[in-house]
């Protein structure tokens, strides 16, 4: 889930914070989770969706395709989330879906998105940041993935 949680939808803030994509190394492969765990499998599926580092220069159609795929992956994470982390998954994935809608509102233009104060408000919300940290720890412990903490550039 490293790319799913802190990935493309947080990379949408690239023009705002220029830090969200830094953890996704080019050529890095997603962590593979234990067989049979639907939550970690959804995490892995989210990790497999596209290379986030290229979004700043990608064509709008490609950005839209990748964001749409990440929204689907986020919905799979919500559906598979165990009870003990479900509320945090809902907060983080809900915020990412809101970011996806904002990106669509700005026609997948990072510069226009950067000027929208709703982005900063959304990503700096204390409940979102706290849920992201708890989700980071949970995914690290359960699935072996990393980099799920939301970044705000602060």
Largest beta-sheet characterization? none
**Secondary structure: number of strands:** 0
Return the domain count: 1
Q: Give the oligomeric state of the chains in this entry, treating copies of one chain as homo and distinct chains as hetero.
A: single chain
- Secondary structure class reads mainly alpha
Task: Provide the succession of SSEs.
Answer: HHHHHHHHH
Beta-strand residue percentage: under 5%
Task: Outline the structure in words.
The structure is a single chain. With 154 residues, this protein is mostly helical. Helix content is 62%, strand content 0%. It is globular. The longest helix has 21 residues, at 60-80. The protein contains nine helices and no strands. The chain has helices at 2-6, 8-11, 14-17, 38-47, 60-80, 86-105, 110-114, 117-124, 126-143. The two termini are 22 Å apart. It has one domain.
Strand-helix topology:
Layout (H helix, E strand, L loop, with lengths): L1 H5 L1 H4 L2 H4 L20 H10 L12 H21 L5 H20 L4 H5 L2 H8 L1 H18 L11
Helix pairs in contact: 4-5, 5-6, 6-8, 6-9
Q: Which key terms come to mind for this protein?
A:
154 residues; mainly alpha; 9 helices; 62% helix; disordered C terminus
Gist?
This protein has 154 residues and is mainly α.
């Amino acid at each position: 889930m490293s790319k799913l949680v802190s990935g493309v939808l947080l990379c949408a803030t690239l023009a705002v914070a220029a830090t969200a994509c830094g953890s996704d190394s080019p050529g890095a492969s997603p962590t593979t989770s234990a067989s049979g765990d639907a939550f970690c499998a959804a995490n892995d599926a989210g990790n497999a969706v596209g290379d986030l580092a290229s979004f700043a220069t990608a064509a709008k159609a490609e950005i839209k395709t990748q964001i749409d795929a990440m929204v689907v992956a986020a919905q799979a994470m919500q559906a598979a989330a165990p009870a003990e982390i479900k509320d945090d998954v809902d907060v983080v994935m809900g915020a990412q879906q809101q970011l996806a809608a904002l990106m669509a509102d700005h026609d997948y233009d990072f510069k226009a998105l950067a000027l929208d104060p709703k982005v900063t408000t959304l990503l700096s919300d204390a409940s979102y940041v706290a849920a992201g940290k708890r989700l980071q720890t949970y995914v690290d412990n359960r699935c072996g993935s990393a980099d799920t903490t939301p970044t705000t550039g602060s």
